[in-house]
């Protein structure tokens, strides 16, 4: 344990993308950084550290759940209220992992520099409501959004996306390479109805929507539209096991 004490506080500078700027080292941190660099973890070759970060922080599906009953602090998961449930849940990891990640980034400047954006770059983000998309994205830094590569969206998002021709996901998520949109039969019965009235069958509607999104996002982005057979989307299997929730 480092026993050095500092009475001086140095204000951290931020880059234009909101992430901390670590280009220069304050004098009072030079000793700490030298000590950290000789630790068992940080003395490993950069390639090995990169593998460790990917194993710890990557290959997850992040479920973004932003539903709450009016006047209540209880968030809802497909109609079932969950007490003190975090805004996002990482599949395959216990909820405390979220706080562990935050603490990991604040341990050391070098760890922050090497790994702070990896959770966004290495994981898939599943959204379940348009409101949830807007709220979650509004709380992310530009530098974090710029590294997101893979997202999954609810069918309801497409209604706004098609109506607002200026909306382009890759304007903020500049590294985006894959978008999956989940279309349910409920979507087909509501906002997709105008397409059907013009003589389109559901397969043609799906392909029309996919083509429009692919054209707007550009050739760098793979767009997939998945038709789900349920009127309402089922709770993902891994969440069903945790919360005992089923399709509604």
TrEMBL record:
InterPro entries the record matches: DUF7730
Every DUF7730 domain range: 35-162
Protein name: DUF7730 domain-containing protein
């Amino acid at each position: 344990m480092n026993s050095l004490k500092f009475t001086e506080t140095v204000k951290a500078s931020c880059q234009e993308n909101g992430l901390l700027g670590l280009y220069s080292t304050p004098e009072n941190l030079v000793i700490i950084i030298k000590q950290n660099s000789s630790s068992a973890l940080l003395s490993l070759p950069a390639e090995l550290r990169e593998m460790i970060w990917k194993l710890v922080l990557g290959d997850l599906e992040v479920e973004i759940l932003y539903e709450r009953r009016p006047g209540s602090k209880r968030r809802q998961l497909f109609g079932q209220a969950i007490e003190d449930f975090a805004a996002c849940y990482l599949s395959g990891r216990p909820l405390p992992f979220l706080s562990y990640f935050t603490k990991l980034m604040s341990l050391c400047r070098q760890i922050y520099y090497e790994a702070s954006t990896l959770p966004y770059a290495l994981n898939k983000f599943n959204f379940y409501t348009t409101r949830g998309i807007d709220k979650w994205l509004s709380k992310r830094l530009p530098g974090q959004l710029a590294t997101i590569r893979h997202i999954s969206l609810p069918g309801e998002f497409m209604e706004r996306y098609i109506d607002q021709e200026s909306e382009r996901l890759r304007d903020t998520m500049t590294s985006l390479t894959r978008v999956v949109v989940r279309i349910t039969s409920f979507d087909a019965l509501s906002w997709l109805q105008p397409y059907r009235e013009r003589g389109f069958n559901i397969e043609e509607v799906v392909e029309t929507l996919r083509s429009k999104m692919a054209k707007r996002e550009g050739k760098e982005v793979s767009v997939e539209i998945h038709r789900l057979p349920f009127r309402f989307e089922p709770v993902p299997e891994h969440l069903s096991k945790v919360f005992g929730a089923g399709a509604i």
